[in-house]
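Re: [ENG-882] Designed sequences occasionally contain unexpected residues at chain ends

Forwarding the minimal case from QA. Structure tokens:
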């Protein structure tokens, strides 16, 4: 972390999940002792639970029904959350500032045609020459252009069209690391002076049969009744997908001051890594990230918001890491996925958004599981480490600081 880096403020957050819509509503849902589980859909994809999106009136951020109709659900979720972030930052509808607002988006590919996929799987299940059948289908039903047309560029394009964000634009695709690197790149651009203000975030729709099939084939899903993330480690592990949209407005302190906008919190660094996930590799990577951020630690009471997925063995290793970190720094730990589920590309922006909420409240919400990892927190909280270990690969970490904590 260069000493020449400019202070970077988080001046806006748009967050919608299974738990709530908006920061105030998330805090109201979180700040309850022994808080209840977020909404869980056990029936639609049985035996795999998901956290469905809270009821949302998309008209509030996407007023034209024609725009909504041409978006798939994950695009509507992301475009909605982006509008919330712009509202939070006080720049919604301000053409001049939006024309110079850069944008970085993390999201997955488009939703698949379930009917075609089902027909293909049904046709090849009892056939030896499935390669020939797949080639025929690729020529007729599964055209690659359908995939290429639905890259995250579409989400960025929709945000640009609906909200008039017309600065530079870039997109990231690739599960959790896409979200980590989107935030890292946005932070680096603002901190280095390449950008004054940037909208960054992602979205994920958990209510998709194609993704449930994909994650189950990888052995990643939790099949039992819902329980908190840390409590899954002794029962084989598994993730519960959660629909969410999360966007942040990152802004240089000088730029925010010129327009009279106080920040919600300060972002003091973002680190990312990708290991082979051999024994201890992810923990070593996280230790290196912590060392890279250590100079920005102020000594104020620290909290750790973990994006642990629940998948083993990564979650057990992350549990060991954050437990030791908590002992070393007298910090308190929370697994954010217990409250909002796992959102892949959107997970890290959502964790940073929740960290911003904790920083603005100067308080950490009560423990939400019985594993012993989550303990009551000291107050007032001054800094929050937001971590995100991918369910398969990739580790990220960010440091969020309360504005009056040094």
């Amino acid at each position: 972390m260069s000493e020449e880096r400019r202070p970077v403020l988080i001046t806006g957050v748009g967050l919608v999940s299974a738990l709530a819509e908006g920061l105030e509503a998330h805090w109201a849902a979180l700040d309850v002792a022994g808080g209840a589980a977020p909404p869980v859909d056990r029936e639609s994809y049985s035996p795999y639970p998901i956290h469905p999106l809270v009821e949302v009136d998309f008209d509030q951020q996407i007023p034209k029904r024609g725009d909504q109709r041409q978006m798939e659900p994950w695009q509507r979720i992301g475009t909605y959350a982006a509008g919330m972030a712009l509202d939070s930052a006080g720049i919604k509808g301000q053409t001049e500032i939006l024309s110079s607002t850069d944008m970085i988006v993390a999201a997955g590919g488009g939703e698949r045609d379930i009917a075609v996929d089902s027909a293909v799987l049904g046709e090849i299940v009892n056939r030896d020459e499935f390669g020939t059948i797949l080639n025929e289908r690729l020529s007729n039903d599964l055209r690659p252009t359908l995939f290429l047309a639905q890259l995250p560029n579409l989400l960025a394009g929709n945000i640009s069209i609906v909200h008039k964000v017309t600065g530079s634009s870039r997109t990231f695709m690739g599960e959790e690391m896409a979200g980590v690197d989107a935030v890292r790149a946005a932070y680096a651009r603002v901190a280095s002076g390449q950008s004054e203000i940037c909208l960054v975030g992602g979205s994920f729709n958990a209510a998709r049969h194609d993704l449930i099939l994909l994650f189950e084939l990888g052995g990643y899903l939790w099949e039992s009744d819902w329980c908190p993330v840390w409590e899954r480690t002794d029962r084989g592990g598994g993730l519960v997908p959660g629909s969410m949209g999360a966007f942040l407005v990152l802004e240089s302190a000088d730029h925010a001051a010129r327009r009279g906008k106080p920040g919600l919190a300060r972002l003091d660094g973002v680190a990312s890594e990708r290991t082979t996930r051999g024994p201890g590799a992810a923990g070593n990577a996280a230790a290196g990230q912590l060392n890279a951020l250590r100079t920005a630690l102020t000594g104020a009471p620290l909290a750790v918001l973990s994006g642990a997925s629940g998948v083993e063995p990564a979650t057990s290793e992350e549990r060991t890491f954050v437990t030791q970190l908590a002992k070393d720094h007298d910090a308190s730990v929370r697994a954010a996925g217990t409250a909002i589920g796992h959102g892949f590309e959107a997970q890290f922006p959502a964790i940073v958004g929740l960290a911003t909420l904790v920083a603005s409240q100067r308080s950490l919400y009560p423990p939400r599981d019985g594993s012993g990892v989550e303990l009551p927190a000291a107050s007032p909280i001054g800094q929050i480490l937001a971590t995100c270990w991918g369910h398969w690969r990739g580790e990220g970490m960010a440091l969020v600081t309360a504005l009056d904590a040094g």
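QA comment: On inspection the terminal residues look reasonable. Residues 114-147 form one domain. Proposing we downgrade this to a documentation issue.
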